[in-house]
């Protein structure tokens, strides 16, 4: 990030715009939304600027810029649309102590003005550091469409109510009050105008004053396989509301980014056979934060109910008397099989599918290898890398065909996703350069079209 986004307080501050053409008019339209004291220096000012000056909205000096014009200005714009004249503005205004923007000249600008979605006092600023103005416009259009026009009114009325809401205990109760206002009661009342919004706030405050201070709540949330687009809406909402997020090693950083900015983020990474936080410590951590009245999100890769040691955590929560809920996620097997363009079950081929783990707490996990060795069986094998040679031996011993296809999908759904198409006979070799989390899809080869479509490495 080369440009640090800030919102500048402009009340009673001076701003200089040098130039009087279209670029100056466009900037002035924005600046006039603020309460800044605006000066325009321009030998030839467009009629709009003259009209604004006549209406007392800005001060127009009808000449070229001179040294001292930008004294006491916080910011200055070079808007001549002329490189030489704007270069002069840059020099003069910077010497006067202002920071300078040259319109449409990123390289010479000391700051840039973002694209803006205006629901005053809610203002969304969008910047791409000059990299993709078209993208910025698209994001702006999307936000314009999704942010209701009444949002500004809700925020304005909400602001006047902040003092009144301070009677609520700080922390979770107050946050719940404001969430209920902005998510439900406010939008419901917004159509009927300001008085209705105020009534809704009064009623809401009453009900929150009388509510008992609720104990904490723990959401056991599936973060999916890595791609944030594969998060459920409910998972996103939980992340939006969380006070504390306790996550696994495999949860992608892009997903943690979605947590509420003020949330405490705790890495409770556990690695099979490697250094790990013990399950007891994790249980204690979740319970501790829950008992403090926090909204805790226990964030697990994939689906929390698949190889997630969920029951141990639920037992700890029950023992502590804490309220909990499971938010399902897309498990790695589903993401992996989508990648190879196959189906986990298929009429006439396999009417059941197994989810297996390659190892458990005691080491390599024993499974019903004889059943899996039969023709046309399909299994998604989690945590199977280290146990691969051992599983291969078991399966071959029980009569599995050495040519049985196995698709190893590494980092499924992430940008570094890789497919290794192999067979039971060559499985351990195919795994030699797999370093990320991988699911072994036993009995499934990548579908030809999927191979052609994705550009992943196919190691045969
Ligand atoms: N609850 C998780 C599984 C946790 S066990 C789920 O439902 O997906 C950890 C194992 O999951 C890893 O060893 C790997 O086998 C698999 N895994 C998790 N994320 C993965 C990903 N993005 N791609 C491939 N395998 C993944």
UniProtKB/TrEMBL annotation:
CDD domains: SUMT
InterPro entries the record matches: 4pyrrol_Mease (IPR000878), 4pyrrol_Methylase_sf (IPR035996), 4pyrrole_Mease_sub1 (IPR014777), 4pyrrole_Mease_sub2 (IPR014776), CobA/CysG_C (IPR006366), NAD(P)-bd_dom_sf (IPR036291), Siro_Cobalamin_biosynth (IPR050161), Sirohaem_synth (IPR012409)
GO biological-process terms attached to the record: cobalamin biosynthetic process; methylation; siroheme biosynthetic process
Keyword check for Transferase: yes
Catalytic residues, chain numbering: 248 (proton acceptor), 270 (proton donor)
Keyword terms, alphabetized: Cobalamin biosynthesis, Lyase, Methyltransferase, Multifunctional enzyme, NAD, Oxidoreductase, Porphyrin biosynthesis, S-adenosyl-L-methionine, Transferase
Domain Sirohaem synthase dimerisation: 151-203
Reactions catalysed, as given in the entry: precorrin-2 + NAD(+) = sirohydrochlorin + NADH + 2 H(+)
Domain (Tetrapyrrole methylase) ranges: 220-427
Superkingdom assignment: Bacteria
NCBIfam families: cobA_cysG_Cterm (TIGR01469), cysG_Nterm (TIGR01470), PRK06136.1 (NF004790), PRK10637.1 (NF007922)
Entry similarity comment: Belongs to the precorrin methyltransferase family.
Name of the molecule in the record: Uroporphyrinogen-III C-methyltransferase
């Amino acid at each position: 990030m080369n440009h640090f986004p800030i919102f500048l307080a402009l009340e009673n501050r001076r701003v200089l715009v040098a130039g009087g053409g279209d670029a100056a008019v466009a900037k002035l339209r924005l600046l006039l939304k603020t309460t800044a004291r605006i000066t325009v220096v321009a030998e030839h000012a467009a009629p709009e600027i003259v009209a604004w000056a006549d209406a007392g909205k800005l001060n127009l000096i009808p000449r070229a810029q001179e040294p001292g014009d930008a004294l006491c200005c916080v910011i200055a714009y070079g808007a001549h649309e002329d490189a030489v004249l704007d270069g002069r503005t840059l020099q003069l205004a910077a010497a006067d102590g202002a920071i300078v923007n040259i319109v449409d000249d990123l390289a010479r600008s000391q700051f840039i003005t973002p694209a803006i979605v205006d629901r005053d006092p809610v203002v969304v600023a969008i910047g791409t550091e000059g990299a993709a103005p078209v993208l910025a416009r698209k994001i702006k259009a999307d936000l314009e469409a999704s942010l209701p026009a009444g949002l500004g009114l809700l925020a304005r009325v909400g602001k006047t109510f902040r003092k009144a809401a301070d009677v609520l205990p700080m922390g979770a109760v107050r946050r719940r009050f404001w969430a209920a206002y902005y998510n439900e009661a406010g939008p419901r009342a917004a159509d009927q105008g300001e008085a209705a919004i105020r009534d809704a706030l009064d009623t809401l405050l009453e009900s929150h004053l009388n509510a008992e201070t609720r104990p904490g709540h723990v959401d056991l949330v599936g973060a999916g396989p890595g791609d944030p687009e594969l998060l459920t809406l409910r998972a996103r909402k939980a992340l939006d509301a969380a006070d504390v997020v306790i996550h696994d090693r495999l949860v992608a950083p892009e997903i943690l980014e979605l947590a509420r900015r003020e949330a405490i983020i705790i890495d409770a990474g556990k690695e099979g056979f490697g250094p790990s936080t013990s399950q007891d410590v994790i249980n204690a951590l979740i319970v501790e934060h829950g008992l403090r009245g926090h909204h805790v999100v226990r964030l697990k890769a994939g689906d929390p109910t698949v190889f997630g040691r969920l029951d141990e955590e639920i037992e700890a929560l029950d023992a502590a008397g804490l309220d909990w809920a499971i938010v399902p996620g897309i498990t790695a097997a589903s993401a992996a099989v989508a990648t190879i363009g196959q189906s986990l079950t298929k009429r006439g081929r396999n009417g059941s599918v197994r989810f297996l783990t390659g190892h458990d707490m005691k080491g390599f996990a024993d499974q019903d290898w004889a059943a899996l060795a039969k023709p046309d069986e399909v299994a998604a094998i989690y945590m199977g890398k280290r146990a691969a040679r051992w599983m291969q031996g078991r399966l071959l011993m029980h009569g599995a065909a050495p040519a049985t296809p196995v698709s190893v999908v590494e980092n499924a759904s992430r940008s570094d996703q890789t497919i290794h198409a192999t067979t039971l006979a060559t499985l351990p070799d195919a795994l030699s350069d797999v370093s990320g989390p991988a699911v072994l899809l036993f009995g499934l080869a990548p579908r030809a079209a999927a191979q052609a479509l994705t550009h992943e490495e196919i190691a045969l």
